[in-house]
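S.,

As promised, the FE2/S2 (inorganic) cluster run. Input:
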Amino acid sequence: MADAGDLELSRRGVLVASAASVAVSAVAAPKAQAQAPDKPSMAKVSFEVNGEPHALELDTRTTLLDALREHLHLTGSKKGCDHGQCGACTVMVGGRRINACLSLAVMHEGDRITTIEGLGSPEHLHPMQAAFVKHDGYQCGYCTPGQICSAVAVLGEIEAGVPSYVSADLTAPSTVTVDELRERMSGNICRCGAYSNIVEAITEVAQAPAAGAQA
Ligand code: FES
Ligand code: FES
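Predicted complex:
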């Protein structure tokens, strides 16, 4: 059986080995950095944004949000967290909402993308935009483009029979209730707390004749 002295030596040995490995890593790190490629990997991608075709050559690490904002100068879609947690960057791809900050632009070859700029214009607001104005569904407005894109897609989801976490019957069509809207819009955060007015705005659009997604 090992005596206390052996154990002490073993502990020292472990400490020495750990220190040596840290030192080796510290020396090796600059070498690894020096080997990183000088140029980013580029790729071409073509997609349609708000009905307009676009062909871009991008660093493959570019998110769809950065492609829209920095390359196409469509700054309506906002960057809040850049980590998929706030919904400020919500856009629609083929009618389905996504967080543009979590999606690489090069993954969208041939896609049909709709941003807030494609929903309506100051002269001809989309019904959801008009309802947000009518019901004061915003305060600072930073989250609003994402909220509106999400809301339009939510009505499309309900119309298509896609259930949510709070749908009581997964086989029956969902109806537009406050609980459904709150659950489905829960990925869109509003720091100003305009939630009740946002729900009122969406409810009004849902109850209007020929309601639904007009993306
Ligand atoms: Fe995309 Fe926050 S910026 S979810
Ligand atoms: Fe300010 Fe929503 S209106 S964050």
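The helical segments are 4-34, 64-71, 116-119, 127-134, 144-159, 178-184, 195-207. The chain has one domain: 42-207.

- D.
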